[in-house]
Amino acid sequence: MTLTSKQISLGFLLAGLMNFSVLVFSKLFTNTTIAKFDPDVMSNFGLLMIVLWGIGYIAVSKSYASVKWLILVFALEKLIYGLNWFFWLIDNSLSDVFSEDTLAGMFYSVYGVNDWMFCLFFFYVFSKVFKN
């Protein structure tokens, strides 16, 4: 499968918007349940950094071809979050999160899938740009 430049730009926009979704899940940083279940990564500060990463993705959506190494950084960042989610699932129960807060449960159910998906996307874009 080959993505066009327009599709890749849209992918960067979608990645950014998905990161902005933490504002909904965290109820604008007032949802204490998210931080309770992963205080090191998903504190309000951590969630704010996720929003900043999202701004970064959107910022390069039209100029991604000129920042190939930054795309690799994006891919590695998503890999790290994806791994964090995987190990979090091993040690935690989604039902415990859902029992405290539905939005927090939904967040923990989907954030890793999102990160793995965009990790693959960023690695794909990096490899495509690197070859050129």
From TrEMBL:
The keyword Transmembrane applies. Keywords: Membrane, Transmembrane, Transmembrane helix. The chain crosses the membrane at residues 42-60, 67-88, 108-126. This is Uncharacterized protein.
